[in-house]
Amino acid sequence: MLLSCKETTRQLSQGEDRKLSFGERVALRLHLAICNGCRNVNAQIKFLRLAVKRLSQDGDEERTA
Amino acid sequence: MGFRTPNSSPLPSTADFRTQVESLRPYLLRYAALQLRDAAAAEDAVQEALLAALAGEANFAGRSNLRTWLTGILKHKVVDSIRRQVRERPVSELESEGEPTEFDALFDRRGHWQENPDTWQQPEGALGQKQFLAALELCLRALPARTAQAFMMREHLGLETAEICKEMGITPTHCWVMLHRARMALRLCLETNWFGK
């Protein structure tokens, strides 16, 4: 089934927090292939992760134990 | 910048070690404050971490980067602190349950964008700007407290969702809802206050 943009944003977010099933990933890919807005949101979600890490680090180390 | 115990000296200078540990206090305070949103709680967590670090000085023994080592200790103290906070004031149902409805206005009745979100221009460039990081911090402060904490546990501390749910005393589904809300609110906030300008 085709996902709506609203469902897609929810799945994009969950994809950061749990492993999506094969079917879920296929549905996401299909939607992203045709939807510019959701592709942008996907990039923004990934950017948020980088940005938040940067808040306390000066960029000389990416991860802590 | 790694602190190393000189191989030639069997007894590392405790004074040196203390000085180095103390010099990292501002960084550690900032790290804890971002996560706890409470200056006093952040102070306590850092204090506990430093005491643990000084007591466990032998465990460090120049094996790794001092800051990385201290941050690892602090992370545990921060999670302890969040656990205590949650015990005193559990996550409200309002904050964790149900579908995020506050973003409904972005979509039409069939769930498609009313207006397609735009590409953010030069986000990598923004990462290097102090003003951008300040804007991001303001956006984080605008989130409901527990939502922000869950999000920061995920993205800043890098904890797994299962652990976050456990510490917050909520189900995985509620956890995902909170994390999703946090991301959607932050992207809107940054779009309004930074990228949309």
What would you say this structure looks like, in words?
The complex is a heterodimer of chains A (65) and B (197). Chain A is mainly alpha-helical. Chain A has one domain. Helix content of chain A is 69%, strand content 0%. Chain A contains 3 helices and no strands. Chain A has helices at 5-17, 22-34, 36-54. In chain A, helix 1 (5-17) crosses helix 2. Mean pLDDT of chain A is 88; it is low at 59-65. Chain B has 197 residues and is mainly α. Chain B has 2 domains: 14-88, Rna Polymerase Sigma Factor, Chain: A (Orthogonal Bundle); 93-195, Arc Repressor Mutant, subunit A, CATH 1.10.10.10. Chain B has helices at residues 14-23, 25-36, 39-55, 57-60, 66-88, 93-96, 123-127, 130-141, 145-155, 161-168, 172-195. Chain B is globular and about 65 Å long. The model of chain B is unreliable at 5-11 (pLDDT under 50). Chains A and B meet through helix 1 and helix 3 of A and helix 2, helix 5, helix 7, helix 8 and helix 9 of B.
Present the secondary structure layout.
The complex is a heterodimer of chains A (65) and B (197).
Chain A: H1 5-17, H2 22-34, H3 36-54
Helix pairs in contact in A: 1-2, 1-3
Chain B: H1 14-23, H2 25-36, H3 39-55, H4 57-60, H5 66-88, H6 93-96, H7 123-127, H8 130-141, H9 145-155, H10 161-168, H11 172-195
Helix pairs in contact in B: 2-3, 2-5, 3-5, 8-11, 9-10, 9-11, 10-11
What's the mean pLDDT score of chain B? Answer: 86
**Distance between the ends of chain B:** 39 Å
Q: Uncertain segments of chain B of ≥5 residues (pLDDT<50)?
A: 5-11
Shape of chain A: globular
Domain module tally of chain B: 2
Brief summary:
Chain A is mostly helical and 65 residues long. Chain A has three helices and no strands.
